[in-house]
Amino acid sequence: MTTTRFAPSPTGYIHVGNLRTALMNYLIARKAGGTFILRIDDTDPERSKEEYVDAIKEDLEWLGLSWDRVERQSERLDRYAEAADKLREMGRFYEAFETPTELDLKRKKQLNMGKPPVYDRAALALSDAEKDALRAERGQGVWRFKLDQERIEWTDGILGDISIDAASVSDPVLIRGDGQVLYTLASVVDDTEMGVTHVVRGSDHVTNTATQIQIIQALGGTVPNFAHHSLLTGPQGEALSKRLGTLALRDLRERGVQPMALLSLMARLGSSDPVELRTEMAELIDGFDIGRFGSAPTKFDVEDLFPLTARYLHDQPLEAVADTIAKVGVPDDLAAQFWNVTRENITTLHDLDGWWHLFRDGADPVIDEEDREFVAQAMAMLPEGPFDGDTWSTWTAQVKEATGRKGRGLFMPLRKALTGQSHGPDMSAVMPLLQVVKARG
Ligand code: GLU
To answer: Which residue's C-alpha comes closest to atom 5 of ligand 1?
Structure first.
């Protein structure tokens, strides 16, 4: 059965980059009728925070990316210890004692000699007595996985055929000196034991994948299908990494972005399929194909989310927004009329506030000098409220009659006087919502 997972480390809020990973894994699982696991990668007790675990769940719920179960790496440490023992027994695991400074020096020397900065495996030559001495002096060493120095190959779901020479990669550290199991090992144990069949993640993990394939094989697991999506860049192709902090999902939510707008964009951005606004998750699932994605960096412009949000809202029925409209303060009996008028004239639901404020308190009238007398005359003819759907046509017909003005010269000054704007909703629909008319003077 198809099983995927989204595996965030709870060390911060998730952003559009993480969303891409979450969404692709979610869509693959749902399209195949499989399982989508939310895996919390919390083996780092210092940096992992419970508040981020909650925030990650909240963000995914907001998007409607439902998971079938949650797994937490911090609750599986005994599994990782067992795997580590197995690797030790097989002779694929060795203890190394170099300090970070020593490793740095080695790297610099290698680079100076024009060699790739790969760990030289000096620790493999240590005798037991030497290890004891080092342990006494420096404490526990780190544990490295001994890579088989051959080419590691796989067919990537996005990048195609990949071949990496293991000799060009350092033996990965899987357990730190303080005993902390690192992600590389924990992830492999989890993916194997949880039957994960597809792993989609960012292309910054490609080298990781190479080493993980060997670890999976050493532990007797089945290698999942890997796919690595390209990294997101800003609209001009600039690195996004520094700005991702401002592209947290919760910030987008706060700015009024609609989940389906965000999902519609992210399910297609970087693929050869066009971005199409979907209003239902089922459509998104149906129309998803990971094979359509390319390896080139993907340009992301946060501004693209707003027209999509506007279009999404435009087609929403009153029921979908009734709560928000009530919160804005619109009385129930005006809600339907209010939504009809505003739905085409908002970008996000935040704009509803401004519209209701305008209808409730009256707009500051905009009156051009040459229209001053005309507007005064028209306002004197405006009936007492409450207005209804006929008020606009009846009134403007009378004003036309009395002043001889017609067309734009008739309607525009009155629109500007009543709404303070030269664009906006159909005035016949606006009139019944106007509670106060400031232009009456
Ligand atoms: N916790 C890892 C990360 O956030 C997971 C990577 C993976 O999908 O294996 O980078």
So the answer is: 7
Q: What is the pLDDT of residues 15-41, one digit of tens each?
A: 999 999 999 999 999 999 999 999 999
Q: What is the pLDDT of residues 35-76, one digit of tens each?
A: 999 999 999 999 999 999 999 999 999 999 999 999 999 999
Which residue is closest in CA terms to ligand 1's atom 3? Answer: 8
Mean pLDDT of 393-409: 97
Q: What angle do CA 226, 232, 237 make, to 5 degrees?
A: 135
Contacts of 273 (CB under 8 A, 6+ apart): 287, 289, 292
Query: CB burial class (10 A; 0-12, 13-18, 19+) of residue 153?
Result: exposed
Q: How far apart are CA 90 and CA 145, in angstroms?
A: 11
Q: How far is the CA of 48 from the centre of ligand 1 (A)?
A: 14
List ligand 1's pocket residues with C-beta within 6 A: 7-9, 41, 183, 187, 201, 205
CA gap 233, 247 in Å, rounded: 12
Protein residue closest via CA to atom 6 of ligand 1: 7
pTM higher than the cut 0.90:
yes
Sketch out the chain's domains with CATH numbers: 3-71+185-233 (3.40.50.620), 79-175 (3.90.800.10), 244-313 (1.10.1160.10), 316-440 (no CATH)
Atom of ligand 1 nearest to the CA of 208: 9
Nearest atom in ligand 1 to the alpha carbon of residue 41 is 1
Q: Do 276 and 320 form a contact (C-beta atoms < 8 A)?
A: no
Q: Which two tokens stand for residue 32?
A: 């195949």
Cα 180 to Cα 75: distance, rounded to the nearest angstrom? 13
Other C-beta atoms closer than 10 Å to the C-beta of 129 total: 8
